[in-house]
Amino acid sequence: MNELELLREAWSEQMCEQRANGIETESFEDWNHKRMARMEFFESFQAEREATKAAAVKKANDEARMKFFNEWKNSKPDAESIAEARVS
């Protein structure tokens, strides 16, 4: 079975259940259009979510890097650390 036949089978089953429960049915074209709209919304939502997550990770990494370098810049080495650095 190709994809279109599988979609028509899914639509047929869903409409059969809806008729059995007294729920109004819709044409295959309307059903498929709504299905495609839901898929596009979900894909755009996922893409936005991943972009937001990537931006949050980048921001956290940038802040951690700045904190590290600021602490390093403002640190006052003690005599023991200086001696160890000269030996190694």
Which structural class do the helices and strands define?
A: mainly alpha
Overall pLDDT level: 90
Return residue spans where pLDDT drops below 50 for at least 5 consecutive residues: none
* Helix run count: 3
Order of helices and strands: HHH
Shape: rod-shaped
Terminal CA distance reads 71 Å
Beta-strand percentage range = under 5%
* Total beta-strand segments: 0
Radius of gyration: 30 Å
How much helical structure, as a percent, in the residues? over 70%
Biggest beta-sheet profile: none
Characterise this structure.
With 88 residues, the protein is an all-alpha fold. The chain is built from 3 helices and no strands. The protein has helices at residues 3-20, 28-74, 79-87. The model has no long low-confidence stretch (mean pLDDT 90).
